[in-house]
Amino acid sequence: MAVYTHLGAEELARLIAEYDVGELVSAKGIAEGVSNSNWLVETTGGRFILTMYERRIDIAQLPFFLGLLDHLAAAGCAVPATIHDRSGEALREVDGKAVALIEFLPGVSPNEPTPAQARAVGAALARVHLAAKDFMPQRENDLAPKDTSRILDKCGMDALRSIDAALPEIAERAHRLVEQWPDDLPHSIIHSDLFPDNVLMLGDEVSGMIDFYFAAHDMMAYDLAVTHAAWCFDKTGELFDAAVGKALVEGYENIRPLEPSEREALPLLAEGACLRFVASRAEDWLDTPADAHVLRKDPMDFVRRWDFYRDQGAAAFA
Amino acid sequence: MAVYTHLGAEELARLIAEYDVGELVSAKGIAEGVSNSNWLVETTGGRFILTMYERRIDIAQLPFFLGLLDHLAAAGCAVPATIHDRSGEALREVDGKAVALIEFLPGVSPNEPTPAQARAVGAALARVHLAAKDFMPQRENDLAPKDTSRILDKCGMDALRSIDAALPEIAERAHRLVEQWPDDLPHSIIHSDLFPDNVLMLGDEVSGMIDFYFAAHDMMAYDLAVTHAAWCFDKTGELFDAAVGKALVEGYENIRPLEPSEREALPLLAEGACLRFVASRAEDWLDTPADAHVLRKDPMDFVRRWDFYRDQGAAAFA
């Protein structure tokens, strides 16, 4: 959560002039995104989010992410379209960094989601899956269990133990999960990271889904499982909200009914979702000095969820 | 530049409901303010800045600052008015912290001010001085040379030398300035910190002056000198822009002509302005670990300005 780059008013005005959106009226650096700088920009023509890509994101993949937004927005999904500049480009360069101007969408991210909100999110996710099927560019998911299990291994058992004594055993559990992982369930482009932070809502309506920078070709039911793990627990993963979970899946199935094989796989797919966040959080934890004034997210929050899915099996989705 | 507190959407919606401003539509934490958290909030009734006071600011003084905004806005100055809640209060409490809802003003802060912009800022500052004269509450300036000289002394000569070998001599120079400091020039409430960051402009028009949290009863010509030091140099204080300086003073005098004693005192007052920023930056520098990922502002940027005013004297304002 930061703005990593200072963009002066004059520089911003020059950049905005490259788009057909009127003149700059206001610009505020906003505290969103961990790998981008973002500004909420107002012009005489409307409001926009200006994103500058700082790190972590492979610039070569940006056309995939931005093209996907345009494809989904054109299909009526609640995602922001990109604004193309006067020469038709969605990406420009400022100070050697890639920038994109993106539609501003209203809404706030729920902190304590209700079943009605989860139902709407399930439906919105299903609409993305259906609309993305005819998006031609492809991107492989590089955070599937085989990848995230390797991330845990790379951390090293001693380092994992320094975070929590239980983590080395979790790395072992990850190996078994990789062997059981299915690959034959229906695919589309999936969001892969649809936490409440990445959903804007007006009351019980989804007004926007954002941050598609993990989107990739993968199993749709896996995306539903990621969203389940992200929406149905308190932060620490200790409390499961069955009503929110049930509404999420129902909302999804109202738009795209799951095949029996998908439904059966959900608990295992949810374990894979937990592995992913255990691994990325463990890696970040070890990369972040304890005194760095940055909030380190505890990987154990997702070990608890993983335990829940493993213990409950199909009951977690009943 | 940060948002220090997480405010959930539900908590924000409950807070906004205490004001007669419609329903919450959007809220973005913005990267402004060093001692506050700020959100750009949109409701069905308009746009606002929600400020949560985190530290540095003495809560007991907030009614002074907020009352001043209302007084100046009512007098037609380009400052944001505060929004009062349904019971008429400008201040509320959330999680034990004071919050205020403030009018949103358009505009962007110039990074490379032009003479036309400086002229408009000079005029806007003079209007504040005139309008503030009948604001009854008083607040003493606790960053006058006697105070800021003491801050330098408290840093200690060894610590000052660790920043720059020239700083201990500057602390001596500060003592001499305190002895020469006038007190008999015309007073009003002054802004005291009108850097370009704290001015919003639409082209050459001032659309807003913000961040009045250093406002205090003091000499008006001192405020003009602070603004001169803040607007007429490049960041490092090496390059002086005479055209910007001339336009600033002219713009001020178009609204409020300086008395001869004020004009004569300007170079000395500008030295006092430089002392203030040398002292606060030195103090922050020593408080901030070198590896804290926070930009430390170099106190020497204002030693260079100080040298300029001392060497040039009246010529700096010719």
UniProtKB/TrEMBL annotation, chains A, B:
The UniProt entry, under Pfam families, shows: APH
- Which CDD domains is this protein grouped with? HomoserineK_II
Q: Where in this chain does the record put each Aminoglycoside phosphotransferase domain?
A: 27-258
The biological pathway it contributes to is: Amino-acid biosynthesis; L-threonine biosynthesis; L-threonine from L-aspartate: step 4/5
Q: Which reaction does it catalyse?
A: L-homoserine + ATP = O-phospho-L-homoserine + ADP + H(+)
Cite the EC number.
Answer: 2.7.1.39
Q: Which family does it belong to?
A: Belongs to the pseudomonas-type ThrB family.
Protein name from the UniProt record:
Homoserine kinase
Q: What is the lineage of its organism?
A: Bacteria, Pseudomonadati, Pseudomonadota, Alphaproteobacteria, Sphingomonadales
**Name of encoding gene:** thrB
